[in-house]
Amino acid sequence: MMAKNIVISGDTVTGKTMVAIGLAGRLKAEGKSVGYFKPSGTKSYIHSTPEEDVDEDAALMKELLGMNERLSCICPIVRHMSSFDELLRIGTETLLDKIETCYERISKDKDFVLVEGTKSPWNLLHVGISTPEIAKLLDATVICLVNFPDIEAIDDILMQKNLFTNLGLEKVGIVLSMVPPMLKKTVNENIRPWLENQGLAFCGVLYNNRELFSPTVGEILRALDGEMVTGSEKLDLLIDQFIVGSMAPENALKWFRRSKDMAVITSGDRTDICLAALETDTNLLILTGGLGPEIGTIARARELHVPIMMTALDTYGTSKIVDDLLGTVTVDNKEKIAAVERIVGEALHLECLDF
């Protein structure tokens, strides 16, 4: 019996891996055997070795599902900064051969294979291995995740629908992600009927939930290879947003006062920004450039019980890394994995596409 393939598509920070975790949990609870496949991923410098480039999501799912296949097969194409030229040189035919060979190993004796898409549905169109093209190759059912902060996101839904249906894929479902709870009535009364009138299956809603989308101080620490100056006991604290403090203190205060449960990223020598941040709802100070804080900053942070973290990375590199942490799941955060299995598993409607 051939495995049923479910392609999980979406843009960056929509929760594709979280949906894979939730789906896997639900299917396994029903006694199904489940595999995971990510045809193309991104190199994780934390998990990779000199011998093998590793995608972080593939490493996580391999452990969660107890898969025996090598990571190089679970995610056969691992990209880095110079990969686009390299993929063009390799060519579509060779890339597809590699993907199909690994898929055959992953899918053997499986009831379902969860196939995670690239960082956007159109990514890698130039070499013929975009998510819609992979979905067509595998004759897959498709779940599209679309961030839905407001009603204007319906245009994103139509764009994703067209990418798949233009290739002849008919089984396409939508999961709305990062939806503000205040839109619950609008989603149920207006958006869901509209989706169904467009020929799309409504497969669930992931509301903007801190347990799902906010990284912890500990996860940020590991991602930045940082060092705690104060607050090492607060590694489980959740961070909802990141603000770069590179402006004048009086301007910075305006932004800081508008935010809650934030981490402020600034150079270690910007004492003025550090002290301004500490007078607002700051959960974490991230000091860049390997520069430590002054004694006055440390004293005030300890008084207010605000952790301070140092990293050798510059401010731009730091902000880029932490932005990618929103909505991610790491293998060592067992509590978050359990929360994802529970919350996402309950939010998904598996009957939406006749699984």
Describe this structure in words.
This protein is an alpha/beta fold and 355 residues long. The chain folds into two domains: 4-212 and 330-353, Rossmann fold; 215-323, HprK N-terminal domain-like (Udp-n-acetylmuramoylalanyl-d-glutamate--2,6- Diaminopimelate Ligase, Chain: A, domain 1, 3-Layer(aba) Sandwich), CATH 3.40.1390. The protein is built from 15 helices and 13 strands. Strand 12 (282-288), helix 13 and strand 13 (308-310) form a beta-alpha-beta unit. Helix 1 (16-29) packs parallel to helix 2 (56-65) and helix 1 packs across helix 15. The chain is globular. The model has no long low-confidence stretch (mean pLDDT 90).
| pLDDT < 50 stretches | none
Secondary structure tally: strands: 13
Overall CATH architecture of the largest domain? 3-Layer(aba) Sandwich
**CATH topology description of the largest domain:** Rossmann fold
Strand residue content: 15-25%
Integer-rounded radius of gyration: 21 Å
Distance between the termini: 15 Å
> What is the H level of CATH, i.e. the homologous superfamily of the largest domain?
P-loop containing nucleotide triphosphate hydrolases
> Which oligomeric form is depicted?
single chain
